[in-house]
Design brief:
- The protein starts with a helix and ends with a helix.
- It is α+β, with helices and mostly antiparallel strands.
- It is globular.
- It is built from four helices and nine strands.
- This is Copper chaperone NosL.
- InterPro entries: N2O_reductase_NosL, TAT_signal.
Amino acid sequence: MLTRRKFIIVLGGVTLAGLAGCGGEEEVAVACEPRPFRDDDECAVCGMFIAGFAGPKAQACLRDGRLLTFCSTSDLFVWLLQPDSVPQLRQAYVHDMGATDWERPSYDAFIAADVAVYVTEQPLMGAMGPTLASFGREEDARAFMAEHEGRLLRFDEIDVQVLNDLARAHIQRTM
């Protein structure tokens, strides 16, 4: 016999089982490729319009099919270093500055962010000020450093301290 107590337990169990499938992000089977920036693209971190600014920019494909755009590589890392960002990420892309011009980065010069090498503490400005210069080849990064100075970093070496140092160096240069 189904008592009131058993009924509530069964009903609660069915409800919880149904909700268990709602918690995770579902990965959408769509293309995960960078695309040219549009005039109305805004940076996912600062909200600034992206088109027309110098320096390397970035994009991130999310598991749910959305594409986030970033006005600089620094803003991409600001987003990536948030605890809830990485589980959403499918693939991030940055400009290969060894294959494009700093003032007008080409939309077909994107590379996977996790295989790029980065130069920090260099003097060229991105859309929001100091940024990480991204390169597909270490040789290109070292040639850039020979001309502009800086320090070479791999993707997994970029942390909050690196971003703070970028901002601190910019403040010191402008004082």
